[in-house]
Amino acid sequence: xxxxxxxxxxxxxxxxxxxxxxxxxxxxxxxxxxxxxxxxxxxxxxxxxxxxxxxxxxxxxxxxxxxxxxxxxxxxxxxxxxxxxxxxxxxxxxxxxxxxxxxxxxxxxxxxxxxxxxxxxxxxxxxxxxxxxxxxxxxxxxxxxxxxxxxxxxxxxxxxxxxxxxxxxxxxxxxxxxxxxxxxxxxxxxxxxxxxxxxxxxxxx
Length: 205
Hints:
CATH architecture: Orthogonal Bundle
Order of helices and strands: EHHHHEEEHHH
Strand content: under 5%
Largest sheet: 2 strands, parallel
Number of strands: 4
CATH superfamily: Winged helix-like DNA-binding domain superfamily/Winged helix DNA-binding domain
CATH class: Mainly Alpha
Structural class: mainly alpha
Radius of gyration: 18 Å
Shape: globular
Strand order of the largest sheet: 1-4
CATH topology: Arc Repressor Mutant, subunit A
Number of helices: 7
Number of domains: 1
C-alpha cells in the first residue's frame, strides 16, 4: 500500500519524499493531512488563509503548520510575509509510504498514518458530495462515485492497486503546459477488506 496526501507538481519545492517513522507520526492526524494537501494543491499560504480554507481557527492552523515544519514536510516561502504572518509551502510534491517494504519499527506509525489518510479522504468525499447538485453538466456527466466489491487475495489486491497507480502516473506525466479546460480532479483509491469479514490482528503482534 502506498498512501499520500493529494499531490501536485505545480507547487513542489522538491521531489517526492519517502516517509520515515518521524514523518509518519507527524502526519498521523487528518487535519495535518489536509493542511499539507492544501499547500500542495493551491500553493503557499499563511496560517490565517489555511484556517479560512479548512474551517479551523488560526491558532490551530499555526500549530499544525509548526508540526509539519518540524517534520520537514513544509518550508517557509522566502521573500514573503512578515514577522507576524509567515508564508508556508510544501517541501515535496508527494509523500510515499509502502509498509510492505518499511522497517518493522515503522509498522505502527504506518497504521496511524493510513488511518489519518482514510479519515481525510472521507472528509474530502463528504465535501464533494455537497457540491454534486451544483456541478456543471460537463463535469457531472464524467464524475464517478463508485463502490465495488471484488473477491481477491492479498496478492491480487496489490496487483490491482499497482495497475491503478500506473494509470494515474501516466496521466500525471503526460500533463503539459497547456492548462486550458483543466481543473484539479481528486482521484481517490481505497482498497480494503469489507468490514467484518477478516479476523482482526492481535494488538502487539
